[in-house]
């Protein structure tokens, strides 16, 4: 019996960890305790000796010295400052007015703002709570289906999982040993495609069931002109002029044969900059060439979009590391809050407090995870996982499908941090040994983990929305009419279509890896046959490493 236990200690250790988590023990302490207890058992059973744990201090100090993880507090702080300075409210109001005249316009605004908040906060709770407080009462006021209203808010909030600078992508890149910049670039296209899929679903509903997604009544569109028109024509003209000017400047300044990422990012920044400059000139000189709606869209949307593309653009172009980009974003967020006269000591305290709590949460889980993984490897757990998965039928696609199903099922019970720190270190080495691109593998996991926030009954996104959605009937402040509350069942059923869309997205990323691996296509190409290495001594004299004539000095590689 004892021999059977020793031979199967790795699966016993893994199952006991899942049991600890299901019983409700904190993740960090469940990981650490599991690793320590089974470490003591392993020493007593003679599987390894105490010297194994001498590696533990070095592992802990390695986590503390990891510069990549500094991006987590920077991006979290950036997002919290922007969100709590009223950016989300302004964006929802502006985009809602922009698309409000069409059926489904408010839902489109929620998805668009969800994507923008995802590119600033990187935190699901902040996005869901913000949009739940701001947009849900408005959607209920104008007669939106409760299931659709709650579903679109919960789903849009989870875009923070896949759209850079997602915290999940930072953690996955760290656990897989890959560049955060490459992970960001690989996830960008799937994130935008998923956003487009949400929008397409809303537009289909607007055609098939327009009563579920009514337009905003004309009397409630506040950014209309004195003649009653919306002013959209003025906005279109401004956008056209900015596109032409941005294209000309892009072609003049940027090498046409340069990387496509560079041209796109700088082109977007130039278009936004031209539009913002023209709007400023119009306002300062009181020319009256732009409509109220056009001015509102430019002054509300361009600054946060500019900050997003500036931060991510410097990372994609290799100008800044993710940590440096996060630091620039944090400073930029503070400057934007100051320019809008919304920065206060209380806001700073709240943002720093939340950032410190989340950062400590991540660090403690990482320390617990490294204790667990050290013991798990000591009992040959990595070999057990490898032998379990390496010979699956179907090759790499069989492995990826099984992993996707496993993560999807575990996401019913574990959140993304638990999955990232427990499952990924076990699966990553197997995927690498099978020759699977780890950036592609990480993005598949990220899209899959995104569903963990939407799964009834444990989805955190659903809990966040439930905490701010009205449970009881209430009187609307604008219409003075009685509005029925939102039932928990409405929130759960509203998430189901979007979970289906996410599952389809997982299949698309599996079938079309080029959506992710395009990151390999840009950058400088080096022909190894043209590389020469010259060796010189410290005085500049040529040096042959195979010459024993006595020339000294340190070699210099060129």
TrEMBL record:
Record InterPro entries: DctM, TRAP_DctM
Protein keywords: Cell inner membrane, Cell membrane, Membrane, Transmembrane, Transmembrane helix, Transport
Presence of keyword Cytoplasm: no
Domain TRAP C4-dicarboxylate transport system permease DctM subunit: 14-241, 293-515
GO molecular function, one term: transmembrane transporter activity
GO cellular component terms listed in the entry, alphabetical order: plasma membrane
Membrane recorded as keyword: yes
Membrane topology: Multi-pass membrane protein
Transmembrane segments: 56-82, 152-173, 188-209, 230-249, 264-285, 297-319, 325-343, 355-379, 399-426, 438-458, 491-512
Subcellular location: Cell inner membrane
Name of one Pfam family that matches: DctM
Highest taxon of source: Bacteria
Function: Part of the tripartite ATP-independent periplasmic (TRAP) transport system.
Stated name of the protein: Membrane protein
